[in-house]
Specification:
Layout lengths: L1 H70 L1
């Protein structure tokens, strides 16, 4: 009977260790996902800034062209 109880306790510990490892793996993956999402959001922000700067440059060039036409 003692051996059966010991075996059952050992099995319980094995399951507990597997669950702990899986939980840690899930936490690590969630952390990596959060990091990737932050990186993606930063890239999107930089893309928007780049587009805005490009549009501003285009407008500036158009305004300069208008001023040149007026000066002629």
């Amino acid at each position: 009977m003692q051996s059966h109880a010991s075996s059952k306790a050992n099995h319980k510990n094995v399951i507990k260790n597997k669950v702990t490892k899986k939980t840690k793996l899930i936490d690590d993956l969630q952390s990596k996902l959060s990091d990737r999402e932050r990186q993606l959001n930063e890239l999107k922000r930089l893309e928007y800034v780049s587009i805005a700067e490009s549009n501003k440059d285009r407008i500036d060039m158009r305004n300069l062209a208008s001023e040149l036409v007026i000066l002629k």
